[in-house]
Design a protein that fits this description.
Blueprint (H helix, E strand, L loop, with lengths): L2 E5 L3 E5 L19 H10 L8 E5 L4 E4 L3 E9 L2 E3 L2 E2 L5 E4 L4 E4 L4 E9 L21 E2 L1
Antiparallel strand pairs: 1-4, 1-11, 2-3, 3-10, 4-9, 5-8, 5-10, 6-7, 6-9
Amino acid sequence: MSLLIEKPGLLTTVQDLGRFGVQKYGVIVGGAMDAFALRIANLLVGNAEGEAGLEITLLGPVIHFEQTTLISLCGGDLSPKLNGVPVPLWRTVLAPKGSTLTFGPAKLGCRAYLAVGGGHRCSGSDEQPFDLFAGRHRRL
């Protein structure tokens, strides 16, 4: 699976369910703000519920799919469109190779979660979320 982040949006990060058992060392749990939405998005595409996903806040990114990919968007309604066609939330959707996912104004809530079949594999550590503002274009 390969995604090209063409525009990062306001605040798009890679999140999982957080780190437990290390708070005594001063490490916060972290993770997705809406763990339920992330879990359901992952289950809808056949991933383990704790797999990392994209947490999209208010103004979403522009994402280009470099191969056919199974996706799910759960959580807030940020007016997602795949090639200009509205994407249903809380459902499994097939994103064809070459398609582009965009977001419009927030209709309900402020965070949505994008899960992809097979999970997100990011350069760098899988142990820490990173902000997609780091580069103009970023492949996941």
